[in-house]
Structure formats: structure tokens, C-alpha cells
């Protein structure tokens, strides 16, 4: 087992907390923290980290028990699924004591001739942070290209290596993560950023025995609300370059075997219309929402490509439906796999359509589900003609499971299931789906998982939410979560509007002018858990990350008494100020999600819920804030400002806000507490900034697990379970 990660240095005790020590009387909003180059900024963050370490000192033993408990439950030596390509079978392996995987391959006809072709563990030894943006094998499988971020700021270097033992070469720096090969084995496409870190252009490099010529521009997007991405159809016939905002898209096609051909626009963009493409020889399949809010699937004969830009040439295949959203289409030589979502049950399905030579549907069926609710997704399928689909299944009580589904026989073969060790097994858990009633009468799905032997009793509960960008919180299994469940906590998910859990209408009902629905849904989920007897109303903690941090923070402003604690991880809380600064990464592309504050009505709407703009003297519960110094999505200063502002609300409290030596404080906020109590009175406001990471936190798995253990220790303290063992 890997040795315990290096611990933070012991803090020096100070009688002056960071907020009082670094307060600028002329800047009560703490905007000075946005000046990254000011040494006082890093001094402030380090002082807050020191304060956090000091507060956590009585919980250090619990952090270590949680961390090592997590390791004991997990299979540390991880062997990835083997995927046969045209010439080689590839897979990854992560050693017991390794943070990163090693990639291997063997000839398809010689499994004993395994060779390593990329050792990420070795590459990570020189860096505090390592994240691979993309990996791409050339079609002949002779070359590997990949992008690396070694800071956490999502800026990448492009590497090229001749397989298996060629020396990696740096081809380019300061590019985007995405790369892709054309089918000529010498042309590599990549993306570049503009000044706001928007992927605004696609370029190609032509290799000559591993040496790259000068990059040539393929496509540039001038509209600051649109991002570029690249891909290739499974048929390998077409490169697809997509330009998309949050609600509008446009695709360009290049023949994959003639990559110097000028890109052809499939259909010019139309405001509010999104479409996605896939291809079978003779036909393009267009998934779109033109006059179809929940999306429909049309088909276009390949021979008519370029004859007309009118969508009237598209022939209907799957009509728009009121009760389902079409989410994806994957083409094979025999037909299509459709991903669709049932609005009523908030459940994803995979639907198989087989087509004959005349393009008539000869088979139309949904693949079976392991249970309800669950996650189901199509796995890697590099071969266009395969009739054996790889499926990925999981739920809150079903570990990640990989299956092979034979389309001809209907038989299923287990390929791999995540092993779980320790005293709490998946079969000892139970998951329930309940429905909360929000402020406007809408039914909001809520999922909760707990130990089966504790079901039927109100439990201390961690409530999780996100609610933005149409992202779906389909059920997922978590080994780390078992440490909370073993100690008697329940874990719940509020599937609020703004996410895509109930399809496209669910997303639309929680964005722009409807954003407040997300916050009301989250609070309604909390109340339903209590009213239906699942959760102890005085011991519910909330968790939100990134846009989920906005969800939780705005909910706390509305009803701080609803929760005993909150963890806010890289939280998006300075919404108005961020959206008013178009020079920041993401801002302009986010106008269609939150609104453009240059419009007075949109500005007022954002101002009305932006967490930092709606703080009051009504105290929040205990809060643990986490940020990252290199985060370009939610800058470090957003959680730092919230920390400073919340601490400032309670600055008149003289008592230092940390657990006494030996054990944490037992004063926890409950419903009905006096409104004039401040956060400092038994409700710590803590900030920890990772100075070597980006938006996703630590890149190495052991450090990430240790960070998770610290977070869980805080939650167990807040829920009154810190003395409980699994």
C-alpha cells in the first residue's frame, strides 16, 4: 500500500485571523484578491490555509482513518479493459502504489508480446500536477499524440511519439486539449485558444517521419460566444468540426482521407438550434431541436450533401416526443444506437435501431436496465461493424460494471466489475427515489442511498446538487462515499432544474430567467427528505462544486437554517462580477446560460441571486470552502472572497472559531437558532486553497483521495458522527 502522502507543515499559531490581518478598509468587497501578482494575495491564502490546518488538527486522526479506510475498500491495482483496435489491443494498468496509469498494447494475434507505450506515472515524477487532455493513435497505430497540462490551468503541450519506444517530442505549447488524426496517418488536428482561453481555432500539422511542418489554419470562430471542437465519425469517412455556444451549433465536414480539403458547412447556424451529426455510408444522421424542443432525428442522403442548405432535405426518422429527450446518436454499419431520456422517470435508455439496405427499420428495441434508477452508457466501440456492444452500468448501489451485449443472441457477458472490499458491501445498501414538491408545484426527483439496516430512521444526511448546463446526475457508485455510509450517514442527490435529469425541458426550466427554480428545488428536496422520514432535519449538510457551489450558496442565502453545514468546492459565487468581465475565461460563452449583464433585466436577475451580492447578517452554517490557485473556470478569488465576507459578518466574535484540542466543538446549528448568532459561534468558516491544482483539484489519485478524506471529516463533524466508526 502506498505510504501516507506528505502532510502539511505544522502551523504557527496566531491570535489574528487572516480576515482581520489582511482587511483593506477601502475595499470591503475584497476585490483586491483578484490581483494574482500581488504577493499579499498568496500570503492571505496561505494564512487561510494555516488557519484551516489549525482547525482540522483535532480531526487529523479521523482524516487518516477515512483515508486509509478508503484505500482498504478499493482495489488499488487497476487493470483497464482491453480494447482491440485494427492491429493492436490497448489497455491501461495502474500499480498499487501509483497515482497514474501506464498504457500497454500487444498485437491482436500475440497476447504475450505486451509492450508499454506511455508511462504517465514516470512522466508525473517531474511535476506536482499532471493531467492528460487527450490521447490519439494514428489510424495505422504507429504514432501516439497526446496533450499534457502540468499546471492545472488547462493550457496544454502537444507531444508526439513513435510507438512503442520512440522518444516523446514536444510539437507545440500553449494549445487546447483536443487533438485528432485524419485517415492519412500524417495529418493531426488540434485547437488553439484566444486570450480568454476559448478554443477559437482549429489547425492542422502534417508529419514527415515525426517532424511537423508549420501549422495551417483550418477554421476560426470569430464569435466570442462560440467554442470549436473536433471529432471523427465512427465510419472514419469524415472529420467533424463543431462550433457551438450553449444553445446554438454549426458543423463543418472534411473528408477524413483528404484533410487539406476546405471545410464544408453542413448547415449554417440558426440562433437557438443545436444539431449533432453521425454517418453511415450513404447517409448522415442529424439529431437536432429545430422546431423540436426535445430533439428529433432526421436523415440526409449523403449524395445530397451540398446540394442545399435547407433542412427541408432532411427526412424524419424519430419524431419529436413530449415524454422523451433524444440525447445522442451512434452510427454503426448495421444501424444506430440512440441515447434517450424518459422525462417522467428521469431515466436514461439505450435504443437499438437496425436498418436494412433500403434504410428501413428492421429492429427497434431498448436495451434492458439492471435496476431503476441507474446509469447506462455505450462504451468504446472503435469498430464500425461490431455487433457486440460494450455497455457501462452503475447505480448508487451497483459498482461500475462493464458488459458485452451480443446483438445477435441477446446474451450478455460480464467483462469487469469494480471490486469492493471491506465490511460494507453494495448488497448491504439500499437506494430510494422520492419526489419533492417545489415552490411552483413541480415534482423534483430526489435520490437517497443508505445502509439497509438503518432504513426507516431519520439519518444525518449529505445532500448533493449541481443544476446547470443540462448536466445529468445519473446514479453513480462511490467508494469514498462508503466511509460516510458506514458511519451512519445517508447520501442524497437533488436532481434540480437546470440539470438534464428529466430531459431538455428540465434544463430549460432552470436557466436564464428561470434560474431561481434550481434553488427552490434544492430546498424542496431537503424538506422532502425530512418530511418523508429519511433525514434528520437538524443534521443535513449540503455539498456543491463549481456551478453546484452557486446552487448551494444561493440556497443558503435563502434559508441558512436549513443546513447544519456546507462544503463548497471551487464554488461559482461571484456571478455578477464574473459575468461583467468578458476578459475572463468562459464569460462570453456563458451568456446563454446565465444572461448577458449588459442587458439591464439580465443584470438585475443575476444580481438577485448571485451569492456574494446577497449576503446578510443572517448567519450561515459551518462552511468549508475549497479553491485552486490555477483554476481558470472558477478563479481562486471567488471562494476566497466568500470566505472573507462570511468571516467579516462574524468579526465581532472574540472566540477563535475552531474545535478545542482533543475533539471538535459540539455546538451545531439547529432549526430555530437565534437570528443574531454569527458564523463564528460554533460555525467555522474555513478556506483551503490548493496552490498546485486547477478546477478539478489534485491530479494524482492518492492526493485526491486524501483531500476527499479531509472534506468527509468536516462533514462527519458537522453531522455529529465524527466519533462513529464503520
How would you portray this structure in words?
It is a single chain. With 726 residues, the protein is α+β, with helices and mostly antiparallel strands. The protein is 18% helix and 32% strand. The chain has 13 helices and 38 strands. The protein has an eight-stranded mixed beta sheet, sandwiched between helices. Strands 1, 2, 3, 4 and 5 form a five-stranded antiparallel beta sheet that branches. Strands 10, 11, 12, 13 and 14 form a five-stranded antiparallel beta sheet that branches. Residues 1-15 and 651-681 have low confidence and may be disordered.
Mind sketching the topology for me?
Blueprint: H1 18-22, H2 39-56, H3 60-73, E1 78-79, E2 83-84, E3 88-94, E4 102-107, E5 115-119, H4 120-124, E6 131-137, E7 143-149, E8 156-162, E9 169-175, E10 179-181, E11 187-193, E12 199-208, E13 211-212, E14 216-220, E15 227-232, E16 238-244, E17 249-255, E18 264-265, E19 275-280, E20 283-288, E21 296-301, E22 315-318, E23 324-332, E24 335-342, E25 347-355, E26 361-366, E27 375-378, E28 388-394, E29 401-406, E30 412-417, E31 429-437, E32 443-451, E33 459-464, H5 481-486, E34 490-494, H6 504-508, H7 516-531, E35 535-545, H8 547-558, E36 565-569, H9 575-579, H10 591-594, H11 600-609, E37 622-628, H12 637-649, E38 685-690, H13 701-718
Parallel strand pairs: 33-34, 33-35, 35-36, 36-37, 37-38
Antiparallel strand pairs: 1-3, 2-3, 3-4, 4-5, 6-7, 7-8, 8-9, 10-11, 11-12, 12-13, 12-14, 15-16, 16-17, 17-18, 19-20, 20-21, 21-22, 23-24, 24-25, 25-26, 27-28, 28-29, 29-30, 31-32, 32-34
